[in-house]
Amino acid sequence: MQGAGLTPDHAWLAQLAGEWVADGEGLQARETARCLEGRWLVIEGEGPAEEGTHRYVFTIGFDDAKGRYVGSFVSSMMSSLWVYEGWREGDTLTLESLGPRFDGEPGTAIYRDTITLDGASRTLVSTVETPDGGWHEFMRATSTRVG
Asked: Model pTM?
């Protein structure tokens, strides 16, 4: 659904709406993605986990005032609220977030998720910034549109 003042960035997000099956290193899930009046994409997913079922909610929108994509992520497997901000180049959306380190060291790290849309599939690559300023990939999943 298109509302007043929607931009091409909002329209790009709308392409991600629908039913998806995600499969990859560290993630197997079924997702339902819907648009809220063309402004926000809400992705709800669930899949198997070591201790039952993993559920998550991922929101993405385009903030007109910031001129950037913004979003959030919550998961039944984590107690952290992840807050994203990012940009899009062509069909690749890059979102960054500051979150707790998972390498046993104290403090926080910068995480980067890239979502690349390619027709009826999309790829999510999750990376974390390393102490030397590089990026370490820790998850990659390809989602295929179903239905």
From this structure: 0.91
Cβ proximity of 47 and 30 under 8 Å: yes
Q: What type of residue sits at position 68?
A: R
Q: Nearest to residue 78, comparing CAs of 98, 104, 55, 110?
A: 55
**Cα–Cα distance measured from residue 111 to residue 120, given in angstroms and rounded to the nearest whole number:** 26
Q: Report the share of the chain in percent with pLDDT over 70.
A: 97
| pLDDT < 50: residue spans in the chain | 1-2
The CATH number that domain 8-146 falls under is 2.40.128.20
Residue ranges covered by each domain of the chain = 8-146
Burial, 61: exposed, middle or buried (Cβ in 10 Å; 0-12, 13-18, 19+)? buried
The per-residue pLDDT for 105 is 86
